[in-house]
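Honest question from a wet-lab person: if I give you the sequences of every part of a complex, can you actually get the arrangement of the whole thing, not just the pieces? Trying it with mine:
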Amino acid sequence: MIGKLNHVAIVAPDLAAATALYRDTLGAAVSEPVDLPEHGVTTVFVELPNTKIELLHPLGEGGPIAKFLEKNPAGGIHHVCYETDDIKAAAEKLKADGMRVLGDGEPKIGAHGKPVLFLHPKDFVGTLVELEQV
Amino acid sequence: MIGKLNHVAIVAPDLAAATALYRDTLGAAVSEPVDLPEHGVTTVFVELPNTKIELLHPLGEGGPIAKFLEKNPAGGIHHVCYETDDIKAAAEKLKADGMRVLGDGEPKIGAHGKPVLFLHPKDFVGTLVELEQV
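Yes, you can. This is the full assembly:
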């Protein structure tokens, strides 16, 4: 079902500082920040040779990323995203196995324009897991 | 300085259950468990096409992984590991930039027989970062 690790998402309390840290201290290639108002986040991608780190910061008031920062003021890893080639089949298999797909259980269009779903961390070793159809 | 994401480490309260979850529900290739008594962990690798997930469980009494499970009984993401080609140069650059290398500041031989160092989560967006020389 799962293929590549598409990205690891890290919530940053200061997106510019986190971007500079990855670019200047760790020497990685970073993107410009992109605002995604419909998802309530600003994102910066750190491009590694085999995958990406997605730096996230809240855009606007409230939302899950702001709540994460309230609980974790220094920031932290928010989720991992695995690729899948058929998200509907993945959702059916996961639900048949008793896994909780967040929201109404159906895949949605995610922050990068592709169908995604999120799985309950309590079902996945304390880890928020995103699946993205590629 | 950093290259590929070598692995994401996830601490599992029940290693057999986490292995079965990744193998049977997520359909990924998983290794046999390997005990690393000198590091106080048992590990299982989930082999993805572009990187690895390292499932960790405490081996023996005490140690940092057991403490992590006390704080996070459901488990969770413990660290990310980035590859580097010169760990001594990386350590010098990081310290010159004011970053805290855990322990005595010098690279050590890690769980997989290669030189590693760990960076303080407070300096890295709330994320425990391992660098491994490959």
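Two things worth pointing out. Helices of chain A lie at 15-25, 64-71, 87-96. Chain A has a mean pLDDT of 96.
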